[in-house]
Amino acid sequence: xxxxxxxxxxxxxxxREYELGRPxxxxxxxxxxxxxxxxxxxxxxxxxxxxxxxLTRALVPRFARVLAVEPDAAMRAVLEEVVPGAETVxxxxxxxxxxxxxxxxxxxxxxxxxxxxxxxxxxxxxxLRPGGGLAIFWNIPGEEIxxxxxxxxxxxIGEAFRRGGSPGLxxxxxxxxxxxxxxxxxxxxxxxxxxxxxxSDRETFVANMLSVSSIAVQPDADRAAFAxxxxxxxxxxxxxxxxxxVAYWTRLAG
Length: 254
What we know:
This protein is an alpha/beta fold and 254 residues long. The protein has helices at 15-21, 27-36, 56-59, 73-82, 118-127, 151-164, 169-174, 202-211, 213-216, 220-233; strands at residues 44-48, 65-69, 87-89, 103-109, 128-141, 190-201, 238-251. It has a seven-stranded mixed sheet with strand order 3-2-1-4-5-7-6. The mean pLDDT is 95.
């Protein structure tokens, strides 16, 4: 039997935890992609599946106009609070409420694996200007945490994830999200990555766990109990974890 997957629409239940627990994006990698796509400061760009604006806030100082497209009201509310310079738009990847040929690039961070379909690519193609770019970002966490979690904490987290269903990361690592690009309107995907260690205190670590779809989907009482028990199992302190931050980019073929 195939492993049950957590749903894509649970994140709004953990919007505050998502904002606290998810890492920021490295400016050097964003700048590399911006340069490769030939985007100027006057460009109009979209952050698709913007969430609480973790990438949006890095786009706002780089571009003249940033449209943050996000379907979840709770996520949008946090985004509007923390990234007031962006324009929030209610929409989703297969129905972007923008005019055709109206934007220079579409960005997506920690979200594309949830909506990687041919319909999505067709919709992105519709809103992009000729030669427009598409950039996709993910944070891939390493397994090592320093100092290491106890066996009891690891087992507790693993059991909670199994109850909620498989999170989105396996979708990213499988590469299945690439399949709709075959024979699409886009050029071949290109890739760049940076490796970095991210330090979190206990509350940020707990928030990160609560923001994972496997946990976010669970009932409020279960999530509260999970957080309480995790705080008991994880001593107060600073925890460091390696991440590979990956960017893929392409543009509409001529």
